[in-house]
Design brief:
The chain is α+β, with helices and mostly antiparallel strands. The chain has 17 helices and 13 strands. Helix content is about 40%, strand content about 20%. Helix 3 (about 45-50) packs across helix 4 (about 55-75) and helix 13 (about 385-400) crosses helix 16. The two termini are about 15 Å apart.
Length: about 475
């Protein structure tokens, strides 16, 4: 929902609100308390919801409640630790964080024009692409914390570069439009007012027509943040450099940073060898029908993650249900698996026993392929998203060098260790006390090891609670 920003920095930002916004914030919190809703986020989170609804308190509260419900349904709070995207989806989709804008906001890249619209949904399930985008947005909340500490000012928004080079009529098919507008709609609902600006570059003629599909899902406040640049390379570089220092600009936009060093996936054609089913390695195969579903019992400790992937070449749609000891439904999904298997997860807030049920609508017996794993809480620190955050942190660490002391919860020794490891690729002993995962020798990458040390050794209980 919101970054866990330093209290002093949030307080300073709130103190600078205009009188009208400050009054609406007061009314918002009073009404929320009256409705019996816990005030578990910082004030800036509520400011975002108010601004997203033009300071209309009742509308902002309704929006807030809808977002909370949506986050529970999508298990957003556990997605960074829990979701492991299929490697084929990572290659097929365009995404990546690299660089900071001139005001210190992180920069997110999406080269949508490079996406292979027909191959994308064979490289990864549509719902998994949405989860991948959610991982990026949730990861941004952690970046906001780091950057706010570093600059000692509020950083809670992102600058986005939206590259439309190669966008054409092939992208305007029903499947791709549905996926893309679904992502846009979810982002507006889950992360209001976290966009600083959107630089739309290399916009072709088809852009205006494509916007007719997207515009209904965007608020006027968001649309007003769009900056559109056509396909002239000099104009593209000039506009990007207006907001982002040249040292953070990839070569494809006229900068000096090799594209492969940015950590950005610029997507591209998806070869059949990179379709999701070509890399799907299930551990079991079960025969099920409408009358004979497949069931599995799972036992989880607090913080454990249960992951599963389901596919089938014999049936189009598969339904899954996860229930607890009391029979309450924890997760219920029904989705097509004809083009790609689906991957999903559940992270346990407390110790529990669950029952997984997989069913189909056909009365005939069909084969469904399945893979299930349980990952203990400590090992979830090695999820894809945490590893990506560690890599982002290491790429940007030179910018933090003079200000490492500004992190009261960040081990300076761990930070320097990661920096030295990046330069020399040597193993050094960290002075901060390692956590259980590191004691067990499960982290082989020193930069990642140092990042985990800096977070798990935090004296800030809020920071520690995430892990």
């Amino acid at each position: 929902m919101s970054a866990r920003l330093p209290e002093s920095i949030v307080a300073a930002a709130v103190a600078e609100l205009e009188d009208k916004e400050a009054q609406r914030l007061k009314e918002f919190k009073e009404e929320v308390i009256k409705q019996g809703i816990e005030l578990k986020y910082d004030d800036w989170c509520y400011v975002r919801f108010l601004r997203a609804r033009n300071l209309k308190v009742n509308k902002a509260i309704a929006f807030f409640k809808e977002t909370e419900a949506m986050r529970r349904e999508l298990h957003a709070d556990g997605i960074v630790a829990g979701f492991e995207p299929p490697p084929t989806a990572l290659k097929a989709w365009c995404h990546g964080w690299y660089g900071l804008d001139r005001e210190g906001h992180p920069v997110y890249h999406q080269a949508v024009g490079n996406v292979d619209p027909s191959g994308l949904l064979k490289g990864g399930h549509a719902s998994n692409i949405l989860q991948l985008e959610m991982c990026s947005a949730e990861g941004a909340n952690i970046m906001y914390e780091w950057l706010s500490q570093h600059r000692q000012e509020l950083i809670s928004q992102t600058t986005m570069i939206f590259d439309l080079q190669n966008l054409g009529w092939k992208h305007l098919n029903r499947g791709f439009i549905s996926l893309f507008t679904g992502n846009v709609d979810s982002f507006e609902a889950l992360y209001p007012e976290t966009l600083k600006r959107v630089l739309i570059i290399n916009a072709p003629r088809v852009f205006e027509y494509a916007m007719t599909f997207v515009r209904p899902f965007l608020t006027e406040r968001t649309l007003n943040k769009f900056v559109v640049v056509r396909t002239n390379p000099e104009a593209v570089y000039a506009k990007v450099a207006e907001f982002i220092e040249p040292r953070w600009i990839p070569q494809r936009y006229g900068g000096t940073v090799p594209d492969e060093e940015t950590g950005i996936s610029f997507a591209g054609p998806v070869d059949p060898s990179n379709y999701a089913y070509a890399h799907f390695n299930p551990t079991s195969s079960v025969n099920i029908s409408k009358r004979e579903p497949h069931t599995e019992e799972i036992e989880l400790a607090t913080g454990d993650v249960f992951r599963w992937s389901i596919g089938s070449q014999e049936v189009n749609e598969v339904a899954m249900k996860l229930t607890n000891d009391e029979g309450d439904i924890v997760i219920q999904r029904s989705c097509s698996v004809s083009s790609a298997p689906i991957y999903d997860f559940y992270r346990a807030d407390q110790a529990c026993k669950l029952l997984l049920t997989i069913s189909i609508s056909s009365s005939k017996t069909k084969r469904v392929e399945l893979d299930t794993t349980v990952t203990c809480a400590v090992d979830t620190l090695r999820s894809h998203s945490y590893a990506y955050l560690a890599a982002w942190w290491r790429r940007h660490l030179p910018d933090f060098e003079p200000h490492l002391h500004t992190y009261p919860w960040l081990s300076e020794q761990a930070a320097w260790q990661a920096y030295e490891a990046d330069k020399q690729d040597t193993l050094k002993q960290c002075n901060s006390q390692p956590d259980a995962a590191l004691d067990a020798g499960k982290s082989e990458d020193l930069g990642f090891q140092a990042l985990l040390n800096s977070l798990t050794d935090s004296q800030d209980p809020v920071c520690r609670s995430r892990f």
